[in-house]
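JOB MANIFEST
job_type = single_chain_structure
chain_count = 1
residues = 122
[input]
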Amino acid sequence: MRINKTCCAFTAILIAGTHALNAAEPADAIANGKRLYVTVGCFECHGRVGQGGAFNGPAPALAGFLASKTALDLISAIRKGPNDMPVYTEKVLSNQDLNNIVAYIRSLPGPTDPKNYAQLNK
């Protein structure tokens, strides 16, 4: 009986520790994704906060736009480089790096509704 209690307590501590590590992981992934987003040059076309731009033609806004897209859709686009977008092979960005970039992009709030600005609604 004592062994079972010790085993259960150890298992509970292990599970709680693993949950704490996983809870911290998204923040780390977002921070690393932001660093990569800037380092590999995503911001040059898509803007520093994913607002979009027109460096080589219109680059879509990423902030708020990707809610309907899966991570696989985005990773596929990054790997294939649609339109004028450069191709980012695994030699340039690992799958983990891509997942971190996706985490960063998904963390961006997207455009604010103009109705939320009192000055514009006078």
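[summary]
Residues 49 and 108 are 7 Å apart (CA to CA).
The chain has four helices and no strands.
exit_status = 0
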